[in-house]
TrEMBL record:
Family (UniProt): Belongs to the Nudix hydrolase family.
Annotated source species: Ureibacillus manganicus DSM 26584
Name of the protein in question: Nucleoside triphosphatase
A molecular function GO annotation: hydrolase activity
Lineage, opening ranks: Bacteria, Bacillati, Bacillota, Bacilli, Bacillales
PROSITE patterns the UniProt entry points to: NUDIX
Keyword Transcription regulation set for record: no
Alphabetic keyword roster: Hydrolase
Entries under InterPro entries matching the protein: Nudix_hydrolase, NUDIX_hydrolase-like_dom_sf, NUDIX_hydrolase_dom, Nudix_YtkD
Residue span, Nudix hydrolase domain: 1-145
Length: 155
């Protein structure tokens, strides 16, 4: 278990073992790497971040991950693998499931709701980008990037 305080002052618990929290995930976050670069959405309000969002009624976590990535980036993904859960102790606590996925196809980007595009970034570019979303700058994100790199070697 990895614990840290995010930029909003909330305690966050990050676990790389499934079902460690009493609150079930109702949000998703997806790490997609292709040709050595990470897929990021450009959120109108928050900035550059990994694609993700909330579950819709009747949707599984995997279905939400696939839908959110497509809606935010126009990238079709497959081969989803659960990677981590993190619990944010905000005023109303919530849990996010983190997945990795593989690119199946990239469609031309069509602006949707809160995103204005997508960008592919190397790990170095990602860690040093000037317009990262608040959650992309925290210690939990750095820890997840380290862990996903180790998992990639096993896959």
């Amino acid at each position: 278990m990895f614990t840290f305080i995010d930029e909003n002052g909330c305690q966050v618990e990050l676990s790389f073992k499934e079902n460690q929290f009493s609150i079930k995930p109702n949000h998703v976050l997806v790490f997609v790497q292709y040709e050595g670069k990470w897929l990021c959405a450009i959120n109108k309000k928050r900035g550059v971040e990994f694609p993700g969002g909330k579950l819709e009624q009747g949707e599984t976590l995997q279905e939400a991950a696939i839908r959110e990535v497509y809606e935010e980036t126009s990238v079709h993904i497959s081969d989803l693998k659960w990677f981590a859960d993190y619990l944010v102790h905000s005023e109303i606590p919530f849990c996010k499931a983190v997945f990795t996925g593989k690119v199946e196809r990239i469609d031309p980007f069509v602006e949707e709701h809160e995103t204005i595009g997508m960008v592919w970034l190397t790990t170095e570019e990602l860690l040093n980008h000037s317009k990262l979303s608040f959650y992309m700058r925290d210690e939990g994100m750095k820890k997840m990037l380290q862990e996903v790199k180790q998992l990639e070697r096993q896959w």
